[in-house]
Amino acid sequence: MKPAPFEYYAPTTTEEALARLAEHGYDAKVLAGGQSLIPTMNFRLAQPSVLVDLNHIPELFYIKPDKNGGVLVGAMTRESQVEHDALIAERAPLVHETMPDIAHPQIRSRGTFGGCIAHADPAAELPAVSVALNARFRVRSRSGERWIPAEEFFIGFFTTALEPDELLIETALPAMPPRSGWSFQEIARRHGDYALVGVAAVVTLDDKDQCQEARLVFLSVGDGPVEARQAAEALRGQAPTSEAIRAAAEIAASQDVDPSRDIHASADYRRHLVKVLTRRVLEQAFERAGLTKDD
């Protein structure tokens, strides 16, 4: 099939793009990499009457250091660039580790970092990773600019806190505290497929080798990124022994997630994957934080 008729605009500045969004509101869709939007338009699952193409706005393509030790990523930066960027590898290793799990190289060569975030697919990796890292998003409209924490940005199935006239401009990935470890793992039927379950973990140890902070965020188990708050709370103040990790994994699977079933997996199987992946990512994250496993 082919898309329904639409007006096409290719602005060359952010201000021009914002003007088009302010003019057309809910009738407009933003085109970033197009790896999700164009197929849905071709199947007429999405029928915007206006398309605002951001690919000709050079000011939205960048990766640069943040003065606080983190890294700033422009919304139109290609996922392939993020995947191979040395600054990302140094300052945002969880993102660096996650990128090869996103679809296929051909997709990542066109897909954009901000486009994936704004699309808010509950099976996408970057929304979950951004929540795990406490990322922030800079958004703009013609009337001003605001920052939205990642945990407040994703509000439902393919739904974000962006207003119709707002544009995601930048993602701020903060530096991780000292003695922090990270891990991302997912299970898919084939590499590059949407994951049946995935999880991003960030942990921090205190000076007594106990868990000071833990964040576990899942994908493909809800309407958006799902944070395992109860599992993280169970780890806080504990030595990250195998027993403590197994207990946290059990809590995550039984209390923190409520997955649905579909043609690919039952709810029970997804809970099983949550348990297995939680144990794996916590073991790896605590090892990277500087603690040797006790058994």
Structural description of this entry:
- The protein is of the alpha+beta class.
- The protein is built from twelve helices and 14 strands.
- The protein has a five-stranded antiparallel sheet with strand order 4-5-10-6-7. Strands 11-12-13-14 form a four-stranded antiparallel sheet, with helices on both faces.
- Helix 10 (229-235) packs antiparallel against helix 11 and helix 11 (242-256) runs antiparallel to helix 12.
- It is globular.
- The model has no long low-confidence stretch (mean pLDDT 96).
Low-confidence stretches: none
Order of helices and strands: EHEHEEEHHHHHHEEHEEEEEEEHHH
Q: Termini distance?
A: 57 Å
Number of strands: 14
Individual helix count: 12
**Secondary-structure class:** alpha+beta
Major beta sheet, strand line-up: 4-5-10-6-7
Write down the Rg: 19 Å
Shape: globular
Proportion of β residues? Answer: 15-25%
Largest sheet: 5 strands, antiparallel
Mean pLDDT score, rounded? 96
User: What is the helical fraction, as a range of percent?
Assistant: 25-40%
